[in-house]
Task: inverse folding
């Protein structure tokens, strides 16, 4: 067992580069050493996480993912069927994975900068025993999901883009339909996300605030909707998105025109949202004055212009 602990210790030191005292503290701490032993002895425990509790403080170990990362983490993952770990087989049955503070971005970077360029290599594509088409498709789907999840975690809408190497590799276009299929799948994912944003229902959203919902909540809702639409529009008119549309149109794929149609819908929705917010802000000016007054006469004085403004909004809104 000591030899197995040493095997973990060597990899922890290589990955996290802790001080010698940090390693000693980790192994002397009963709770953390129990996690290491549990991973090594228990065939039903498949993961082990070792990380710094703070930016560069003492090390900690856990068999479940830490709630937050302040620095890099190393994850040990058992592969395949459960086996009793020994010094002879641990190298073949346990995978070591470094993980940055923001795991989703880290894995997305690894996929885009390591695995996808390798698969787009002509030598790999020409291999007779490897189904590169299917692997490229699956990796792009996985990469796209990672980008979307990372965006949601930050409160933003992200339209995942295929690998640059894929778009600029002539071998993939001349020899394989995989490239076009990947781009079509990408566009389908875009449309799914965009349609969800276009289904914006302010009345349903305002109800989530319960009985305390007010005009300020509605202003926030419209601001967020405009922000999402602008983010989508910026991504749709980006050079990479336009390159995808161009490739699809050259391949006579119907999904090229789908992007153009969706972009029109986004532009229209953005114009309407900005108009609604402009009307709302016109009312907010009088609502703020009404809210700040204390006397009844002042409230009546401010109420009438607000009602007149409301009439104008009702008259001129579409």
Result:
């Amino acid at each position: 067992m000591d030899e197995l602990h040493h095997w973990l210790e060597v990899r922890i030191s290589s990955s996290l580069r802790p001080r010698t005292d940090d390693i000693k503290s980790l192994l002397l701490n009963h709770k953390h050493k129990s996690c290491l032993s549990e991973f090594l002895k228990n065939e039903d425990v498949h993961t082990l996480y070792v990380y710094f509790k703070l930016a560069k403080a003492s090390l900690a170990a856990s068999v479940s993912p830490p709630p937050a990362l302040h620095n890099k983490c190393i994850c040990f993952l058992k592969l395949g069927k459960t086996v009793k770990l020994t010094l002879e087989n641990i190298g073949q049955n346990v995978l070591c994975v470094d993980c940055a503070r923001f795991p989703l971005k880290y894995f997305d970077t690894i996929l885009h900068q390591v695995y996808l360029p390798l698969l787009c290599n002509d030598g790999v594509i020409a291999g007779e025993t490897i189904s590169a088409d299917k692997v490229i498709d699956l990796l792009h789907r996985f990469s796209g999901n990672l980008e979307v999840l990372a965006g949601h975690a930050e409160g933003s809408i992200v339209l995942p883009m295929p690998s640059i190497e894929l778009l600029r590799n002539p071998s993939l276009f001349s020899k394989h339909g995989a490239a076009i299929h990947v781009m079509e799948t990408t566009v389908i994912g875009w449309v799914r996300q965009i349609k969800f944003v276009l289904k914006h229902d302010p009345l349903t959203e305002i109800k989530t605030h319960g009985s305390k919902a007010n005009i300020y909540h509605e202003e926030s809702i419209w601001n967020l909707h405009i922000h999402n639409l602008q983010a989508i529009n910026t991504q749709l008119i980006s050079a990479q998105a336009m390159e995808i549309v161009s490739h699809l149109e050259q391949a006579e794929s119907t999904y090229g025109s789908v992007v153009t149609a969706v972009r029109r819908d986004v532009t229209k929705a953005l114009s309407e949202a900005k108009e609604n917010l402009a009307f709302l802000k016109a009312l907010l000016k009088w609502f703020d004055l009404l809210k700040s007054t204390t006397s009844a006469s002042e409230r009546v004085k401010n109420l009438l212009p607000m009602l007149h403004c409301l009439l104008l909004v009702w008259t001129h809104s579409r």
